[in-house]
Design goal:
147 residues; alpha+beta; 4-stranded antiparallel β-sheet; 26% strand
């Protein structure tokens, strides 16, 4: 019965993938840069990138991922001009200070916080998987001893 349910689960999963047009899943492995928005800036010409896109303050950091699970962060992050999740503008330290002073933003470094999922999420999932594996091995050993 368990094998039939598992087989039906795989069939349903692959059916959902094929009907939604997702033909290949992108598996992440290694270090990736992520950019998050930390503070809004006014939508003026002063805060536009070289290609004409408006930016806000963002925080760029590097995270090491294994199959979409962030395991740890590499190095220190930096404050950048956030355009979207994939694009940013590198700002000099003097530019950051001038923009923060002009817009009366205090403690900009305090706003730069990495999301909970990127800090702890992958570690918690990895620990849970390891614990499940250990408990299943222990349970199987006790079943064999009882028999």
């Amino acid at each position: 019965m368990k094998k039939i349910l598992l087989l039906l689960g795989f069939v349903a999963f692959f059916h959902l993938i094929s009907t939604n047009g997702v033909y290949a899943a992108q598996v992440t492995l290694g270090a990736h840069d992520k950019v998050i928005k930390i503070c809004d800036l006014p939508d003026t010409e002063d805060y536009t990138s070289s290609d004409g896109k408006l930016f806000d303050f963002g925080y760029k950091y590097t995270v090491f991922e294994v199959i979409f699970l962030p395991i740890f962060q590499k190095g220190e992050g930096q404050i950048v001009g956030y355009i979207d999740d994939d694009n940013y503008v590198v700002l000099s330290e003097s530019d950051i200070q001038n923009i923060a002073k002009t817009n009366k933003i205090q403690n900009l470094a305090g706003l730069a916080k990495i999301p909970f999922w990127d800090v702890w999420g992958g570690k918690l999932v990895a620990i849970a998987v390891i614990l499940l594996l250990v408990f299943s091995i222990i349970r199987d050993r006790y079943k064999k001893i009882d028999e």
